[in-house]
Design a protein that fits this description.
The chain is an alpha+beta fold. Helix content is 31%, strand content 14%.
C-alpha cells in the first residue's frame, strides 16, 4: 500500500488492447469492421468513403491514414503514424460495443479479477483542445501495473482463471501487426524486430526497439517514461512510473538501452 496512483499516459493503449481482446472473445467487436459501424459516420474529418475504409484494426495498428485531428492524409493501411488522437476512439468503440462505460468494463474484465484495486480511469482536464491526447487517462500504481504485466506473462490467465477467453488473440496482439513498423503489435511495442519507428519518427529505420534487451521483450510505454516491460523468456516484469528523466516527455531511448545492458548483466 501507500503507492502513488498516477496517470500512466500511453501505457493505457496496451490496457485497451487487452480489453479489446476480451470484447472480441465475447463477440462484441470485430477488428475488421469499419469504425463507422460502432461510432456512426462523421467520427473523423475524412470524407465518408475514406472514413468507411478505416477499420478497428487500423486504429489499433496506427495505420488509419489520419492525423491526430482526424483529417485525411493517406488511404487506410498505407502509412504508419503514431496517433493518440485516433487511438482514443477505441474507448468509444468499446463502450458502444459493450453497452457500458470504460470504467465498468475495465473493472469487470480486468482490474477486479486481477486484483488491481488501485487502478481507475481519470478525467484529464489538461487534454482539452489537444488533438494528440485522450480525454481520460488510466491511473494506476507500480504494483498494479506489475500485476497487469504478470497477466500478460501468463497469456491472459490470472491464478489459473482465463480472463481473456479468446484463444489466439494473445499471439496476434504481441506480433508485428503490419509491415510498415514491425516493432508495433496491437497497441503494444515489440522488441527483436528488424525495423522500428518510434512515435516521434517519420519512418522506420533498421534496428530493434531496445537492442540490449531480450528479443522477446514486449512493452507498454507512455510519455514521461511510464513503462511496463514483459520478458517471457526470463519470466520477468519491470514497471517504471514516477518523475520523467531528462527532457520532459520524449522517449529516452538511450536510458532503455543502458537499463537493459545493466539488467542483463545482473540477470541469472
Amino acid at each position: 500500500g501507500g503507492d502513488v496512483v498516477e496517470d500512466v499516459a500511453s501505457v493505457q493503449k496496451s490496457v485497451v488492447a487487452f480489453l479489446t481482446g476480451v470484447a472480441e472473445g465475447k463477440r462484441l467487436i470485430d477488428l475488421e469492421a469499419p469504425v463507422s459501424h460502432y461510432l456512426g459516420h462523421g467520427w473523423s474529418k475524412a470524407n465518408e468513403e475514406a472514413e468507411f475504409a478505416i477499420t478497428v484494426r487500423h486504429l489499433m495498428t496506427m495505420t488509419s491514414g489520419l492525423n491526430d485531428a482526424g483529417e485525411y492524409q493517406a488511404p487506410a493501411g498505407l502509412t504508419w503514424r503514431y496517433n493518440t488522437g485516433m487511438y482514443s476512439k477505441m474507448i468509444g468503440i468499446l463502450e458502444k460495443a459493450a453497452g457500458a462505460d470504460i470504467e465498468k468494463l475495465t473493472a469487470e474484465w480486468l482490474t477486479a479479477p486481477a486484483g488491481m484495486s488501485d487502478s481507475k480511469w481519470v478525467r484529464r482536464a489538461w487534454s482539452a483542445g489537444n488533438d494528440a491526447a485522450n480525454s481520460i487517462g488510466f491511473a494506476t500504481t507500480p504494483r498494479d501495473l506489475a500485476r497487469f504485466g504478470l497477466l500478460v506473462l501468463a497469456k491472459g490467465s490470472w491464478n489459473g482463471r482465463d480472463l481473456l477467453h479468446n484463444p489466439g488473440y494473445f499471439e496476434r496482439m504481441l506480433r508485428p501487426s503490419q509491415d510498415l513498423n514491425p516493432s508495433y503489435g496491437l497497441l503494444w511495442w515489440l522488441n527483436g524486430q528488424a525495423r522500428v519507428q518510434h512515435p516521434s519518427e517519420a519512418q522506420a529505420r533498421p534496428g530493434s526497439l531496445t537492442p540490449s534487451a531480450p528479443k522477446d521483450l514486449v512493452a507498454a510505454q507512455g510519455a514521461q517514461d511510464r513503462k511496463c516491460f514483459v520478458v517471457p523468456s526470463l519470466g520477468l516484469v519491470v514497471t517504471r512510473l514516477g518523475a520523467p528523466r531528462g527532457r520532459g516527455s520524449t522517449l529516452d531511448l538511450k536510458w532503455d538501452d543502458e537499463f537493459w545492458k545493466r539488467l542483463m548483466k545482473a540477470a541469472p
